[in-house]
Design brief:
Elements (H helix, E strand, L loop, with lengths): L1 H39 L5 H22 L8 H24 L5 H8 L2 H11 L6 H19 L8 H26 L6 H23 L10 H28 L2 H4 L2 H16 L6 H25 L1
Helix pairs in contact: 1-4, 1-9, 1-11, 2-3, 2-8, 2-9, 3-7, 3-8, 4-11, 5-7, 6-12
């Protein structure tokens, strides 16, 4: 009897507790990766940091699956993986990392949270019918962004700040396209193995770009703090947290799993203020809350459509 109770408790923990822990892990550590990226790109080209990060992360993933003799993708699966590697890792991850070289990590994280808004806008242009709640969410989210940038209006006269904002926004747009493409081309191929292949392909493309433009620096000239940042991003950004994210995605309802998107920016803003002394102003706080409220309404409308 006691043994049955113990096994029942263990089953409950594994079926509910572990996915919740995985979600908590994702919510916190993906917020910290903005800080690690900000620190790393201070001393080296952002795209080189991304290329090294993706290559090392891919090496860990692929080594495991090759050791396990996992079946490789076939036919059109390669096309899907190649397109996603460009959208997810070359453009989205590459540009968002490049962006925080010129803007605060907290601001980069808030912009990064705008992906659901783009998904709704793209769906609208594709002729899909939207619920009123989605439209309200778009308006509220846009209002929040306006509040955030109100005190940064003069900063737009600075080229570096303007460039950082533009490429950060483009990175969210490419992630939104990747989200919709994944939904359209959903495949049964192992998602963890797919991530490793996407990272490897993206790292090769980025190394090729760096080589062609001559923009990379020698590895020996990269300071230890950047290598520590890369190591942190590989372990906690590219490997452990992605594994936790997919695990939570597979075991938790969408409305619970989406919570990480609201917590990541908060973690990034608070850590940015604490670690780098980035300004935590009233407009950023209020605008961030309004933006996240808009994202919540948009996500709620998407779930209502699915139902």
């Amino acid at each position: 009897m006691i043994q049955k109770i113990k096994s029942g408790i263990q089953s409950k923990i594994s079926s509910v507790g572990l996915p919740i822990l995985a979600l908590c892990w994702v919510s916190f550590f993906w917020g910290t990766t903005w800080i690690a990226s900000k620190e790393g790109v201070k001393y080296m080209p952002a795209l080189q940091l991304v290329a090294i990060r993706q290559f090392l992360g891919a090496t860990l993933y692929l080594s495991y699956f090759i050791f396990k003799k996992t079946t490789w993708p076939k036919g059109k699966q390669w096309q899907t993986i190649f397109i996603l590697s460009i959208l997810n890792f070359v453009l989205s991850n590459g540009l968002s990392t490049w962006g925080v070289k010129y803007i605060s990590s907290g601001l980069g994280a808030i912009i990064g949270a705008l992906v659901p808004l783009w998904v709704v806008i793209i769906s609208l242009f594709n002729g899909e019918k939207l619920l009123k709640l989605a439209i309200v969410g778009l308006v509220v989210g846009f209002a929040g962004v306006c509040v955030i940038f109100f005190e940064h209006l003069s900063d737009f006269l600075i080229f570096d700040f303007r460039f950082g904002i533009i490429i950060s926004i483009i990175s969210t747009l490419t992630w939104a396209f990747a989200t919709l493409y994944t939904k359209k081309k959903a495949a049964s191929f192992n998602p963890y193995f797919s991530l490793g292949i996407q990272m490897f392909i993206s790292s090769i493309l980025l190394f090729a770009y760096l080589g062609a433009t001559g923009s990379a620096v020698r590895l020996s000239s990269i300071p230890m703090i950047s290598w520590i940042s890369i190591g942190y991003l590989v372990l906690f950004g590219s490997v452990l947290t992605f594994i936790a994210f997919i695990y939570a995605l597979q075991h938790l309802p969408a409305e619970i799993n989406s919570i990480y998107a609201y917590i990541n920016p908060i973690i990034a803003v608070l850590l940015g203020a604490y670690v780098f002394g980035e300004p935590l102003t009233f407009s950023i706080a209020v605008g961030g809350i309004i933006t996240l409220l808009g994202l919540y309404l948009v996500n709620q409308s998407i779930r209502n459509i699915k139902k």
